[in-house]
Amino acid sequence: MKVAVVPGDGIGEEVVPVAEAALRRLHPEWDYFPVEVGYGRWKRCGAAIGAEELRALREADAVLFGAVTTPPDPDYRSVIVMLRKDLGLYANLRPVRGPGVDLTIVRENTEGLYSGIEWELPGSACTLRVVTEVGSRRIARFAAARAKGRRLTIGTKANVLKSDALFRRCAVEEAEAAGVEWEEKYIDALCLDVLMHPAHYAVVVTTNIFGDILSDAAASLVGGLGLLPSANIGDDHALFEPVHGSAPDIAGKGIANPVAALRSAAMLLDHAGDREGAAAVEAAVENTLGAGMKTPDLGGSATTVAFGEAVLERLG
């Protein structure tokens, strides 16, 4: 098993080593190798990722990815958006779990407003929202498979956007073909209702930017972005990353919450077929939090390193 480790920028350089240590504790036999990408590399040599790094990521069986900074610079292209397309990572899986919440948001990952097709005109700028039938059916099938035995919620703005009407039609047809119970909600109402009645929801499938916003909002149900992992899944590649950003305001202070990175590592283990290891990481995280050890974002005083060491101790 070849695992590419990408710390990225900001707090990614602090939380990814914690997650990597957990993987190494459970699977010392795996081949771990670092890959540098991100804003730091861009500032140093003018490119956020090079051909050699891209080749290394393509050859990996899985990628453990930290947060990367995307500055508001027209010459800077988002690394993670580029990788999602290059590696064919069409499904973004974001579980939100806690007391009274067991929700998985399945977000289309390569189209929509993150299509990367943009241009500027005098006094305006345009971004093309791309929604295709192939992409919509592919993500709907993925979500329907996750929803077997549970309800699938389809989140769109199909009452206003023709592109969402296409997405809705494809999602409904795929859900019915899979024999999955489904419902539909407009995304604005869905964002509110998920926060008010989270127990109602099991699996939600939606388009790219709607899924990004919904999952960030849903993080408030379980303690914030520092706790949420994600998986980017394709037919041939898989990348696992915390939902949170690079948080440059706290980078280097040693107080970043590594839980989302640890849970991303657990998702990597599960994807690799080690469900027992994934459960062990989740249990170690929960037991550490349950013992009262928390980083400052959760009201505690633990450092990133101290929290990671406590989790490793519980892994044995």
From TrEMBL:
InterPro entries on file: IsoCit/isopropylmalate_DH_CS, IsoPropMal-DH-like_dom
Keywords: Oxidoreductase
One Pfam family this sequence matches: Iso_dh
Keyword Oxidoreductase recorded: yes
GO biological process: one example: tricarboxylic acid cycle
Family statement: Belongs to the isocitrate and isopropylmalate dehydrogenases family.
Protein name from the UniProt record: NAD-dependent isocitrate dehydrogenase
Organism expressing this protein natively: Methanofollis formosanus
